[in-house]
Each structure stands twice: as C-alpha cells, then as structure tokens.
Automatic annotation (TrEMBL), chain A:
It holds the Pfam family ATP-synt_A. Keywords: ATP synthesis, CF(0), Hydrogen ion transport, Ion transport, Membrane, Mitochondrion, Transmembrane, Transmembrane helix, Transport. CDD domains: ATP-synt_Fo_a_6. Gene3D superfamilies: ATP synthase, F0 complex, subunit A (1.20.120.220). The chain crosses the membrane at residues 12-31, 69-89, 101-118, 138-156, 163-183, 189-218. It comes from Chamaea fasciata. This is ATP synthase subunit a. GO terms for cellular component: mitochondrial inner membrane; proton-transporting ATP synthase complex.
C-alpha cells in the first residue's frame, strides 16, 4: 500500500459507491441513545452534562426568539467535534476536510441567519453594516468593507474549517513519514516523535475548531 | 409462515439472551413492533457494564479460552496474530503506523490520567440528582412527622380546655357576685341617706321650735319686768354685794 500524501483526502468509494455518507454517520455511534432511565450510566450523564454546557454557552447571549436555533447549533457543534476527533485516528477519513462539505454546511446556515435578520428587523440588520462612532468621511468606505465582510462570511467559515483540518492532517502525515524515513539514522527520530506528539495534542484543538465555527455563526 | 414461527419463538429466545443483549435487541426492533409491549417483561439492566481487560477485550473472552489454554492463552493468540500480520506484510508499517502510535499514546495517557476523575465527576452528577430527590423525600417525611406531633399537641391542649373553661366560669361568677354586692351596698347607702335626711329634718324642726319657744319666753319675761321691780332688784344687789365684800374682807 503505497500512500501518497493526498490519498487520505480523497473521498472514499467502494465499487463506485461514495462512502462519505456512512462516514458522516459514524459519530452517532459514539453517542449513547437516551434511555428512559432517570439515573443513567456514566457516559449518558457526561453527554447530558456536555450538551447542557454547550447549549447554555450558546444561548445566553441570545434573547428568547434566538433560542429556536439551540437544537441545530448544538447538534452542529457536537457533530463537528466528533467528526474531527474521529478523523485523528489512523486510517480514518475526515469528511470535513472536503471543501464541498464545509461550504455545504456554511452557506445555508449563514444565508438563514442573514435572511432571518433581514425579514424580522431589516433596519437593524442594515444598521449593523456601519459600526457606531465612525467619522463621517469614512462612512462610504466602511459600508463597502462591512458588506464585503458580510458576504464573504460563508466562504471564510468553510475555508477556515477545511484549511485547518487539512493542514493538520497533512502535517501529521509529513512528520510521521519523516520519522519513518529517518529511522535508520537514529538520533533525529526521538526528536521528531516528540514533535508529532506535541502536534497531536495541539490538534486536539480540533475541538476548538468547533468553538470557532459555531461562535462565528452567532448573530 | 416462517415469520409466524419467528414471532412465536421470539419471547423465549429473547429471555434466553443475557439482559443487555435482550434490551439491545428490543430497542433495535422497536420500529417493527406492531402492538404495544408485546415482549413486555424486559429484564432490568445491570448497573455496570461488562468487565473488560485492557479496556478493549471483554473478560468473557479470557474465560472462554481459559479451560483449553490457561491464563496465557489469549496473550499468545494476540502476539501470534500480530507477528503473523507483520511478517507476512498483511499489515504494512508505514507513516500511519507512527501516527497511530502517537495518537494511541495520547489517548491512553489521557484516559489513565483523567479517567478516574471524569468517572468520579459523572458519579457525582448522578449522586447529586439522586440525593436531591432523596432530600426532598426526607423533607416531606419530616414535615409530615412534625405535623403529626403538632396535631398531638393540639389534642392535648384541647383536653386542658375544660380546666380553662371552669376557671373562667368561676371568674365570671365571682365578678357577678361582687357586682351584686356592690349594688346592694349602694342601695343600702342610698336608703340610709334618705332616712338620715328625714331624721335631720325632724331634728331641725324640733330645734327651731325649741329656740322659738325660748325666745318667746324670754321676750315675755323681759317685757314683764316693770321699772319698779327693776329698782328693787338693783338695791337688793347692792346690799348683797356689800355683804359679800364684808365676808371677803373677813376671809382675807
């Protein structure tokens, strides 16, 4: 099995059947199904506690109407968390390294927030385009800049997620290849191995990816 | 026909499985249930999961191999399998191996270091939930207990009420008696006053009559004293005085 560096990022297919859908459902295997018990086992308790924490974090800045987003935002966050964590295992495919998938996640949600804002309170939404207290001369330029930043947001979200994950995985590949190749000449190895370990623990900042992703989605 | 066989044999087969598997099967086949609770008496789930060794391999595997190969059997099997895969290059060592070794090291380190704490935390969450409910139950029981005691005390108090009422009755009787006596006294005094008045009136009248009579007598006497009688009485008095002075001189 000769792997090139980018084989891990090609969308897996078996006999021409794209397997990406199945790989998207794998995170669900990690979550225990809610039982009808009052006192649950440890995993369910921890899961419940985590979801409570996330939902509270997401929903406290929002008013009552914004709480409608709780389900989708929390489930999005948990999904991305698990998908990224599972991608760290060896020989696994991470769906979020595909730009197509991330843009598919980013675009509709961003558009939804934009349209909701425009429909319910259009003047406030348009008012957000101009930060307070700008000197009069800068107003036209600033409005252009804010509009551009607004319109580019989904692209930024998707590309940010893709780039971070792809870069991380690639780095792991490269450094481990270097380790294997340098195995014959011993001393440099231990240093490189330690580097991988460090990189890996920082890559469990994949969890922070989710934070970044979802927090940006907050209006 | 075959499906009918399956349906008939299902409950017995389900009860024959160990409880976690039975519940799992029940949950997975729930969409296929046509009636409510057809395989209803589900055995209760055990509190802890199955025992595992090295976090991955269930203890039952070791017990299964124990009679034939003893304690080292599964380990020998594992080692042999691993060496076979490596030597025949069924599993090729490449860069992913190193990466997997690293991630496994990180995971195992994380579990070893934080596992007990996380488990204790989860247990604490559960414990809090249960103890909160328990505390409510205890409080309710306590409240009812105190209510019972209060009720008993009230009943004892009510028994004492008869004494209270007797005392009050006595009190009131005494008050009435006192009042009555006071009024008697008042009546007596009033009557006495009236009578005294009458007495005083009579005395006054008698007195006035007496005075009047005396004055009348004196007036008449004084009127009846003629001038001649006056001269005679004065001469008599002078003679008496001389006689008295003589006797007085003689005494001295």
């Amino acid at each position: 099995m000769n792997l090139s560096f980018f084989d891990q990022f090609s969308s897996p297919s078996l006999f021409g059947i794209p397997l990406i859908l199945i790989s998207l459902t794998f995170p669900a295997l990690l979550l225990p199904s809610p039982d009808n018990r009052w006192v649950t086992n440890r995993l369910s308790t921890l899961q419940l506690w985590l979801i409570n924490l996330i939902t509270k974090q997401l929903m406290t800045p929002l008013n009552k109407k914004g709480h409608k987003w709780a389900l989708i935002l929390t489930s999005l966050m948990i999904f991305l968390l698990l998908v990224n964590l599972l991608g760290l295992l060896p020989y696994t495919f991470t769906p979020t390294t595909q730009l197509s998938m991330n843009l598919a996640l980013a675009f509709p949600l961003w558009l939804a927030t934009l349209l909701t804002g425009l429909r319910n309170q259009p003047s406030t939404t348009l008012g957000h385009l101009l930060p307070e207290g700008t000197p009069t001369l800068l107003i036209p330029a600033l409005i252009m800049i804010e509009t551009t930043s607004l319109l580019i947001r989904p692209l930024a979200l998707g590309v940010r997620l893709t780039a971070n994950l792809t870069a991380g995985h690639l780095l792991i590949q490269l450094i481990s290849t270097a380790t294997v190749a340098l195995y014959s000449t011993m001393p440099a190895i231990s240093l490189l191995t330690l580097l991988i370990l460090l990189l890996l623990t920082i890559l469990e900042v994949a969890v922070a990816m989710i934070q970044a992703y979802v927090f940006v989605l907050l209006l | 026909m075959l499906s009918r066989l399956v349906l008939r044999a299902a409950p017995a087969a389900l009860r024959a499985l160990p409880p976690p598997v039975a519940v799992g099967v029940l949950h997975t086949t729930r969409p296929l249930h046509t009636t409510q609770q057809s395989l209803a008496p589900v055995p209760p789930l055990p509190e802890k999961g199955g025992e595992v060794r090295h976090g991955l391999i269930p203890e039952e595997f070791f017990q299964f191999l124990y009679p034939k190969t003893g304690v080292t059997g599964p380990y020998m099997l594992g080692t042999g399998l691993l060496l076979y895969l490596l030597s025949k290059e069924i599993y090729v060592i490449n860069h992913e191996t190193v990466a997997s070794a690293c991630i496994l090291a990180v995971i195992i380190y994380g579990i070893k270091k934080f596992g007990a704490d996380v488990a204790a935390f989860a247990d604490k969450l559960n414990e809090e939930k249960v103890s909160a409910a328990q505390a409510m139950k205890n409080e309710a029981m306590q409240a009812l207990q105190t209510a019972i005691e209060e009720e008993k005390k009230e009943q004892w108090r009510v028994e004492g009420h008869t004494y209270l009422f007797d005392a009050k009755r006595n009190n009131i009787a005494m008050l009435l008696e006192t009042n009555y006596r006071e009024r008697l006294m008042m009546v007596y005094n009033e009557v006495k006053k009236r009578l005294d008045y009458q007495v005083a009136l009579q005395t006054l009248k008698r007195q006035k009559e007496q005075d009047h009579m005396i004055q009348w007598v004196e007036k008449n006497v004084i009127q009846s004293i003629t001038p001649q009688q006056q001269k005679e009485s004065i001469a008599k008095c002078i003679l008496d005085l001389k006689a008295l002075s003589k006797s007085a001189h003689a005494a001295v």
